[in-house]
User: What shape does this take?
Amino acid sequence: MEAKGVLRRLYPKLMFLLKPYEKLPPELRNDSVRTYYDILAKKRPSIFFKRVTDILLALVILVFLLIPMAVIAVIVKTTSKGPVFYRQERVTSYNRHFRILKFRSMTVGADKAGALVTSAHDCRVTKVGATLRKYRLDELPQIFHVLSGKMSFVGTRPEVPRFVDRYTPEMAATLLMPAGITSLASIRYKDEDEIIGSVSDPDDVDRIYLEEILPEKMKYNLEYLSGFSFRGDIRLMIDTFRNVI
Assistant: This one.
């Protein structure tokens, strides 16, 4: 009885983390998305604890990362021309746009001088940037997005609007949850640039990503949604750590 009372008091907060279906953006109100929405609606407590864990874990990690992040910032600034951070428009839950924050790993203006995704041996990636990408250190500043609620530790990687516009109705279901720093798809496709190969034509790189890689990654992302659980998120974070190491 006491547990039920706690859940009743938390219910308004649980509702806040998953909007009523009728209040979703029009592009998310379709039969395919509704299937996944109904699954998540039954897991509001897990969604709530996911958010609480995001906040607490982000605060703890931030304490330990402040000095390493400061060191990385100095290295990025002193080894190549340009700003320390890279900002790019991405899409998160409910099709909201935000500017993602990363340590810059490419030359200035790289996103305007080539494909939106990188291929193996992409000449736009700096020497330091290659190391940052290999160990995913360029993504450390995203911890601030986790604190703000724009992102979560686990969830579909945030795509650029151009790619989101190409989502099928079912793929749009991934926008029911905040974008994530890591995911099952991220682990399976950690060597995505190697899969693309040494293709140099920007149009070909983006086409390969849209037609071959994105659909396969989305299978994992939708699998994550259909089987979402708080424990599953913990397992994915541990698996990510193991893969990085």
Remarks:
- The chain has a mean pLDDT of 88.
- The longest helix spans residues 44-79.
- The chain has ten helices and four strands.
